[in-house]
Amino acid sequence: MEYLQIFRKRIIPDQCILLKDDIIVSRTDTHIITKWKTLNPKLSFTHGCSCYFLNDGVKVSKFYREDGSLLYWYCDIVDYSINNENNTLTVTDLLADVIIYPDGRVNVVDLDELADALESKLITNEQLCLCLRRLNSLLNIIYRDKFDKMAAFLDKLML
Question: What is the DSSP letter of 45?
């Protein structure tokens, strides 16, 4: 497998970071699975794994506590830019996120940041529409009890 560099691009704050310590576990044309440790130490979680669903504009991550127990699933609404020449993937966080707790509770977060980004012209109308459509699609998957199909990509991963 050819080495792929993954960059995480944020709109708020404006930054683009090479995820140099993330380990790519598997890669296909439709998804990339990674495992990682937190970039900055956190009290609530220390490590996790992620699946980049390249056709869906969603990054699904499992956040684990230090003792290995699941804290929650974290779903980022994203856009992807692949540069085959440089073998890089830039993942742009479109701000809206969904957290799924082990007890089944679902929390949609950061919609205020999405509105702030639009007002400040940090995102385009097209990016806003893309984000909302992808968010709606993800929520439909969750509310129809189909999230287990996305989760299955990470459930078998040993950390």
Answer: -
Q: Residue 26 forms beta bridges with which residues?
A: 33
Q: How many helices (H) and strands (E) are present in the chain, helices listed first?
A: 3, 9
142 φ/ψ sector (left φ>0, alpha ψ -120 to 50, else beta): alpha
- Residue 115 vs residues 8, 13, 18, 119, 121: alpha-carbon distances, Å: 21, 14, 27, 6, 10
Q: Is the pTM of this model over 0.90?
A: yes
Residue 126: helix, strand or coil by DSSP? Answer: helix
Q: Which amino acid is at 118?
A: L
- Residue 3's nearest CA partner among 52, 59, 16, 20 is 20
Distance between CA atoms of residues 153 and 17, nearest Å: 25
The single-letter DSSP state of residue 36 is E
- Cα 63 from Cα 55, distance rounded (Å): 23
A 10 A CB-CB count for 116 gives 15
Q: What is the mean pLDDT of the chain?
A: 94
| Residue-level pLDDT at 1 | 45
